[in-house]
Amino acid sequence: MRKKIFYSLFFLTFTALILAASLFLWVTYRQVSQENINGLKNQAHLMIALYRDGQLNFERLKESSILDRVTVLSPEGNVLFDNYVDAETMENHLQREEVQQALHNKEGYAVRMSDTLGKEVIYYAVLMPDGDVLRFARVNDTVLMRFASVSHYVLGILLILIAGAFFAARSITARVIKPLEKIDLDRPLTGPPLTYPELQPLLERIVTQQRKLEKEMRRYKNKKQELKAVTNNMDEGLLFLDNSGEIVSINKSAVRFFASEKQELIGKNLLTLSLGKEIEKLFAKIDTAGKGSLLLSRGSSYYQLNGSKIGDKGMVLLIMDVTEKTASEKLRREFSANVSHELKTPLQSVLGYSEIMLNGLVKEDDRPRFLRKIYDEAKNLLQLIDDIIKLSRLEEQQQDMLEKFNLRKVLEQAVQRMADKASKNKITVNLECGAAEYLMQGIPSMLEEVFANLLDNAIKYNRPGGSVTMKVIEKENKWVISVADTGIGIAPEEKDRIFERFYRIDKSRHKAVEGTGLGLSIVKHGIIFHKGTIKVLSAQGKGTEFVIKLPKTLV
């Protein structure tokens, strides 16, 4: 601002000086030109007065000491005499402005560039008594000669005036700026009265803008803190990279992913962090398509990296742990394959026996045995489908379906469901629990299915005349339920696999035991849904005990 005011004042003063000098030169030029015209006029009239009674003597004119140019023209414009140039070589001057004026008005003048001399010349013409025209001419450079004679004085004065303008502009600028410099821009409306009252609206506007800016800054800081809180509490890793791939920002989850310190990661290039060559392909894809993803394997864990380009600022990278999702997809694929296999086996058996019977290859005595086989396989197929449906329903259960119920009633209903099967297999089922209400939160139908499957399993793998005992114990905020049998037990190598879908204990050792292999998988899903745990205690030949712990409340 200081420079702008100074330059403006100095330029204004300098311009004024130049304009004044130009005006002075123009006035001087006009004055000198008028003096020259008057001088030529006086000479012309004086010469006419001297030679009024006779003609002009051209020889005497040529030898005279007249400095101005003298030309005599005939009424037709022909040059009769010129004291500077040979008259015979000169063209006709009839159309010259000053000649026309003299012929019509007896006198006249004109100012123009001379073709002969190449300078600005003043011409003055007078009509003589004999009809000829007498013309005087004078070069109009007197003003320049006058100025040249005093040019050093004028230049000196001009330099003094410019210097004065410089210091005057500097002084005025300082006086104008000083009150402005005293204004406290942090608190512009406080302090001494304003030197320039005109600034009051501006300062009020500044205060208003300051308040708005402070408000926006607070909002920005709050948003920044919120974003930081969100990103740092994300389960997913979040990184911001510049165009070269260097880490600009990283959240806590991403720091844990790289198993390093945040300070060590900031500024590092992601390509140097041993993520494999796949990361280079991901960068190339993001650069060309604007986004890309990559599935990265680390030991037994799987991570999905999703990247997106942010204009020309760089890119953002999201790291998600998809181990569970990958495992779930793997289980789903295996489940689909197993379902296909398990459904195909009984269907093939049914089709095979049916085809033999349709072709008349079965003796009449064997027909009941074939029909029984078809019936048993169809029954197994139906049981398998029923268990698959049950398992699907268990996976679809939601937390908003929870209710408060009596666990004792659920256990009694499960025992009642298995009573016929236990009687058929000569197995005694005992439920040891008091008459009190065992209240808990959950889905009673799901838990009934869980305990019915445990009882079913205990009955199937028991010995004739054996027993199954179900007990309930209350511990703090949990119910502990045990289901123990006197059956054949489970081999140590099979303990970890019994909860897998479609897994059944080796059929070569237990040919009489039938099942779909989904019962204990249903049990596991039901217990996990209720945030409980299940433990298996077993010894071959001595029996098996399942110990389940269920919290009383889930919310």
Record the SSE blueprint.
Elements: H1 2-50, H2 58-63, E1 69-73, E2 79-82, H3 97-105, E3 107-113, E4 120-127, E5 133-139, H4 142-149, H5 151-181, H6 200-232, E6 237-241, E7 247-250, H7 252-258, H8 262-265, H9 278-289, E8 291-298, E9 301-310, E10 314-321, H10 323-358, H11 367-396, E11 403-406, H12 407-417, H13 419-424, E12 428-432, E13 439-442, H14 444-460, E14 467-475, E15 478-485, H15 519-529, E16 533-539, E17 543-551
Parallel strand pairs: 12-14
Antiparallel strand pairs: 1-2, 1-5, 3-4, 4-5, 6-7, 6-10, 8-9, 9-10, 11-13, 14-15, 15-17, 16-17
Helix pairs in contact: 1-4, 1-5, 10-11, 11-15, 12-14, 14-15
Short description:
The chain is an alpha+beta fold. The protein has 15 helices and 17 strands. The strands form four sheets. Strands 2-1-5-4-3 form a five-stranded antiparallel sheet, sandwiched between helices. Strands 7-6-10-9-8 form a five-stranded antiparallel sheet, sandwiched between helices.
